[in-house]
Write a structure and sequence with these properties.
The chain is α/β, with parallel strands linked by helices. Helices cover about 35% and strands about 20% of the residues. The two termini are about 20 Å apart.
């Protein structure tokens, strides 16, 4: 690795622009994103087909593409999300890329990094403590303990904390009530952190958080509780984007990490804007499949940040598409154009959504695996040619930037600035926005609403928040809210189970199916394979 000060110097950043966190990590002053007269680079969004256990590799592809562009002499910045400890110790693993397309120091990035997620958790839990303290100290605002919506959080997969009863042990220990925990990356504080444009905007958004309702049904905010200033103070240093590097010594900004199935799934707006001001090309990614991460990137982040991608890279693997075609897991490495043909309907659906729905230039990236065959690759090339979409084979995992040259050239060939065709109008009622996403993006036939969801929607509209975008929380494995409906299902029914207002973040969370805001650990957690030796060398992270 190169000293991070040298990496910063490549970007024209001096010692007054960065704060060193050791030799290989640094914070960049977020105010540089708002400089007058700065250049505006071109934005490349990396997304993927619907995820499968076979893997897709968006982060690996993003790193490799950025390295390939740099190797071609293009001024390029990589802009990614921070990993959550929950998936790192759970089943998914880290989020630093893989093979020869990684960001480093990988162990630091996947573990505590610069402490951003801890700061977000602390701000979240400070608000929770102040809410319960307000009730304990006389409850001047008349908060109904049965209608407190603000949860505590921890950055760990811990199903035991989904539903808890706290305040037990007598009057001195608080007011007994039902409570629960979210994983930190599902906290509204994380969403606010990633959409705020300045510290003052951050504080204003924090003050708008709705923590619960009074006995009379009126919303109570973090601003009324008096917590917004202290929460913003906890987030002050974290708000500066993090600078690291790829294995090839190219600059990478990693900042913020909301989940894409229960939040908007993109790195911070300030990091993206800063990157666009420092490089001619910026490669960023959106979490999970294009129906989740990319839809929210476009319908939520692009609207709020005033940006739009000049190209979209849609990542697919032969193995994952065969999974969508019904191929048994143990046979994913066995050549089969038949399974691939069936599963490719998922790829086609995502292409149609991005190109025809959002109106953006699209390039397909085949993330190569050793078990792929030339015949399978050719089938996908022919399919994309029929659709009029460029398709490139990427071998960045095995070859680094050299394996991404074909993809980089294809991306440069499709780049064109276009206005995003949003899925819905902001003035439409919330139900129309929900159904627009479900029917236009997912291809659902109908949408139904549980009684609790209907009540919540009515309350949100009555509060004057009906003009906010919607953030659909559903399974990442299917276009539907049923994880078992693979490939490209149509005319299915979707059920809105619950609706939550994220007034500070500026969107309405729509919960469908069995999606959880606190994941659990698998039967054999990844944590069992992680270890450290006497010299401090960590093994088992991936």
């Amino acid at each position: 690795m190169q000293p991070i000060a040298q990496v910063a110097a490549k970007l024209g950043l001096g010692e007054d622009d960065i704060s060193l966190y050791g030799k290989y990590k640094a914070k960049i002053n977020h105010r540089l994103a708002n400089r007058e007269g700065q250049k505006q680079g071109k934005l490349i969004l990396v997304t993927a087909i619907s995820p499968t256990p076979a893997g897709e590799g968006k982060t690996t592809m993003s790193v490799g593409l950025a390295d390939a562009l740099c190797a071609m002499g293009k001024s390029t910045m990589l802009c990614l999300r921070e990993p959550s400890l929950g998936p790192v110790f759970g089943i998914k693993g880290g989020a630093a890329g893989g093979g020869y397309a990684q960001v480093v120091p990988m162990e630091d990035i996947n573990l505590h990094f610069t402490g951003d997620l801890h700061a977000i958790g602390a701000a979240n839990n400070l608000l929770a403590a102040m809410v319960d303290n307000h009730i304990f100290q006389g409850n001047a605002l008349g908060l109904d303990p049965r209608r407190i919506t603000w949860k505590r959080c921890v950055d760990m997969n811990d199903r035991q904390l989904r539903f808890v009863t706290d305040g037990l042990g007598g009057k001195v220990n608080g007011t007994p009530r039902e409570d629960g925990f979210d994983i930190t990356v599902a906290s509204e504080v994380m969403a606010i952190f990633c959409l705020a444009t300045s510290l003052s905007d951050l504080k204003e958004r924090l003050s708008r958080i709705v923590v619960g309702y009074t006995y009379g049904g009126q919303p109570v905010t973090a601003g009324q509780i008096g917590a917004a200033g202290a929460m913003a103070a906890l987030l002050k240093d974290a708000f500066d984007p993090n600078l690291v590097q790829t294995l090839e010594g190219n600059p990478a900004i990693i900042h913020g990490g909301p989940f894409a199935n229960i939040a908007h799934g993109c790195n911070s707006a300030v990091a993206t804007r800063l990157s666009l001001s420092l490089a001619d090309y910026v490669v960023t990614e959106a979490g999970f499949g294009a129906d989740l991460g990319a839809e929210k990137f476009l319908d939520i982040k692009c609207r709020k940040a005033g940006i739009s991608p000049d190209a979209v890279v849609l990542v697919a693997t032969v193995r994952a598409l065969k999974h969508h075609g019904g191929c048994p897991k143990e046979e994913l490495g066995v050549p089969s154009v038949e399974y691939l043909k069936k599963g490719s309907a998922n790829l086609v659906r995502h292409i149609e959504n991005l190109r025809d729905g959002f109106g953006l230039p699209v390039c397909v990236a085949i993330n190569a695996f050793p078990t792929d065959t030339p015949e399978e690759h050719q089938f996908l090339r022919d399919l994309c040619a029929e659709l009029g979409v460029p398709c490139a084979l990427s071998e960045v995992f095995a070859k680094g930037s050299a394996g991404g040259r074909e993809l980089a050239e294809a991306v440069l060939g499709v780049m064109e600035h276009r206005d995003v065709h949003y899925t819905y109008e902001m003035t439409a009622p919330l139900t129309e926005k929900i159904e627009a996403v479900c029917k236009k993006i997912y291809r659902a036939g109908s949408v139904s609403y549980a009684p609790a969801a209907k009540k919540a929607l009515a309350e949100i509209e009555a509060m004057g928040c009906g003009d906010l975008p919607v953030c659909i929380a559903k399974t990442q494995y299917s276009f539907s809210d049923n994880a078992k409906l693979l490939a490209a299902p149509e005319s299915f029914s979707m059920t809105v189970r619950d609706v939550r207002l994220s007034a500070g973040a500026g969107f309405v969370v729509v919960i469908m199916g069995a999606i959880m805001t606190m994941p659990g650990l698998p039967k054999k957690p990844a944590a069992e394979n992680i270890d450290i030796d006497e010299n401090g060398r960590i093994t088992g992270l991936f």
